[in-house]
């Protein structure tokens, strides 16, 4: 059975936006701008990378987004690094 892609399923897109809501306003603002610019063009690989980022605590995520830290361990994947670079640019 093929799983529906992120782009073709409005419910999956809504869930992704919901998961992007964070406890720190700074993170929320970054993700709000990111989704405004890129939501319609997100690939399933982008969604997978975002899902990994959403597993981080708010402060660790903010450190990544502000460039205080670089992705390491499980996050040191090409698609995550590319996504973090995009998030930093918004």
What does this structure look like?
This protein is mainly α and 90 residues long. It has one domain: Flavinator of succinate dehydrogenase (DNA polymerase, domain 1), CATH 1.10.150. The protein is built from 5 helices and no strands. The radius of gyration is 13 Å and the shape is globular. The chain starts with 9 loop residues before the first helix and ends with a helix. The model has no long low-confidence stretch (mean pLDDT 89).
Instruction: Outline the biggest β-sheet.
Output: none
CATH topology (level 3) name? DNA polymerase, domain 1
Number of structural domains: 1
Proportion in β-strands: under 5%
**Number of H- or I-type helical stretches:** 5
Structural class: mainly alpha
Q: Give the class-level CATH name.
A: Mainly Alpha
Give the low-pLDDT segments: none
The global form is globular
Fraction in helix: 55-70%
Number of beta strands: 0
Whole-number mean pLDDT:
89
Brief synopsis:
Pfam families: Sdh5. With 90 residues, the protein is an all-alpha fold.
What are the main properties of this structure?
cytoplasm, FAD assembly factor SdhE, mainly alpha, globular, SdhE_FAD_assembly_factor, chaperone
Structural topology:
Blueprint: H1 10-20, H2 25-38, H3 44-54, H4 58-65, H5 78-89
């Amino acid at each position: 059975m093929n799983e529906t892609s992120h782009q073709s399923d409005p419910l999956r897109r809504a869930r992704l936006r919901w998961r992007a809501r964070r406890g720190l306003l700074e993170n929320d603002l970054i993700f709000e701008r990111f989704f405004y610019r890129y939501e319609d063009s997100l690939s399933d690989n982008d969604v997978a990378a975002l899902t990994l980022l959403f597993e981080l605590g708010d402060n660790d995520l903010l450190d990544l987004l502000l460039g205080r830290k670089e992705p390491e361990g499980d996050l040191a994947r090409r698609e995550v690094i590319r996504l973090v670079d995009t998030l930093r640019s918004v």
